Recover the amino acids of this structure.
C-alpha cells in the first residue's frame, strides 16, 4: 500500500532495475512495518535527455545510472524510520551494483482514508487495524 | 484541477482505458464537487514487468488488468466523500468491463495556492470562490 | 531537491521541452531559494489520447501543446513565493514559444526528512542548514 515509483535511465539493465525494486520493497518491510505482500511498484525508464539530474548536488558524484525512487505511503513513520529506510534501500542497491550516489529517494505521505486497494472499498474504513470492517 | 494519473497495463484495450478515465472523472464530479469541465488526466501504459502489483494483498484477486488511479486534488474532502469516490469509480469501472479487484485508487491533497491552471496565475489567489479576482 | 515532473505532448519539439524545463528550474531558483545546482527533473511525452486536458477550464484556451508541470518540494514556501514561481515559469515559457494558457503548474510539499539525495543519507538529518552533519 505504499506506492513506489521508480524512475531509471533506460540504459540500466532490467535485472538491475528489478534489484532496485526489490531493495525498495525490502526496505519498506524491514524499517516501516509494511507487510511483505503489500507491494505496489511502477517502473519507468527514461532516455538520458528526459531525466535531468544534477551530477553533483549537494556533494555527490552521480553516474549515468542515477535513479529516483518515489514512495507514497501512510503518514506516521518517524524520522528514524525514514532514515533507516533510506539506508536500507541504498545498501541493498549497492549490493545490486548501483553506486550509493546514484540512489535518490523521495517520500510523500497521505492518510488511510486516501487509499482504496480494490472493490471501491476505503482502506481506512475497511482494512485499517483497529477499525471494524463494514463489509462481510 | 484535480490531476489524475492512470497507470494501466499495456494489454488493456484503449477503449477500456478511456472508460476508466471517464469513471474517474465522473466519480470526482458526482462525489467531490468537481466541475464537469475541470478534467485533467494523464494516462501511462506499462509493460507487465514494469508494474509490480501484489496479486492478492490484502484480500483481493488481481488480474493482468490491475490498474492504479492516482488523484491529486484540493484538501477538504471528507472521509465519506472519499469513500463515495472510491465506490463510484469502481462501480463505473466494473460497468466498463474491469474487475473491481483490479482498481486501486490513491488520493493526495494540496492547497488552492498550489495550483496554476494557466497564464502563471495562482488558482488560490485568482479563481477560488470567495476570493476577489485580481486580474480583469 | 525539488523534484519536477514535466508532462508534455509528444508533438512539442525537444528544444521547446528543454526550454520549459529550464523555465521551471530558473523559476525555482529565482523565487523559492532553490540552489542553482539543485536540479532534478523528469520529462514524459504523451500521445494526444493519453493526455486528457480540458480545452478551456476555467477560462483559458489550451492548444495541442498544453503541458503540466508538477513540482514536489519542501514545505515552507509562502503564497507569495508560489505565486511568483507560477508567474516566472509562465513568463519564461512564453518567451520559449509556449502560450501562457498551455502551462499548468501543480505543487506538492513534503519535509526535509522525506529526502535522501544519495548514499542513503537523510537530507533532513545530514544536509539541512542549521543541523549538524552526522557523517564525515
Amino acid at each position: 500500500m505504499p506506492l513506489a515509483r521508480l524512475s531509471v535511465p533506460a540504459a540500466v539493465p532490467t535485472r538491475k532495475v528489478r534489484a532496485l525494486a526489490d531493495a525498495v520493497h525490502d526496505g519498506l518491510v524491514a524499517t516501516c512495518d509494511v507487510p511483505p505482500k503489500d507491494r505496489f511498484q511502477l517502473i519507468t525508464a527514461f532516455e538520458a535527455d528526459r531525466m535531468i539530474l544534477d551530477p553533483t548536488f549537494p556533494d555527490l558524484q552521480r553516474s549515468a545510472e542515477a535513479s529516483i525512487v518515489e514512495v507514497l505511503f501512510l503518514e506516521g513513520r518517524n524520522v528514524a524510520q525514514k532514515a533507516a529506510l533510506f539506508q536500507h534501500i541504498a545498501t541493498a542497491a549497492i549490493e545490486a551494483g548501483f553506486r550509493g550516489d546514484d540512489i535518490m529517494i523521495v517520500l510523500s505521505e497521505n492518510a488511510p482514508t486516501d487509499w482504496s486497494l480494490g472493490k471501491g472499498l476505503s482502506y481506512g474504513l475497511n482494512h485499517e487495524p483497529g477499525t471494524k470492517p463494514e463489509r462481510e
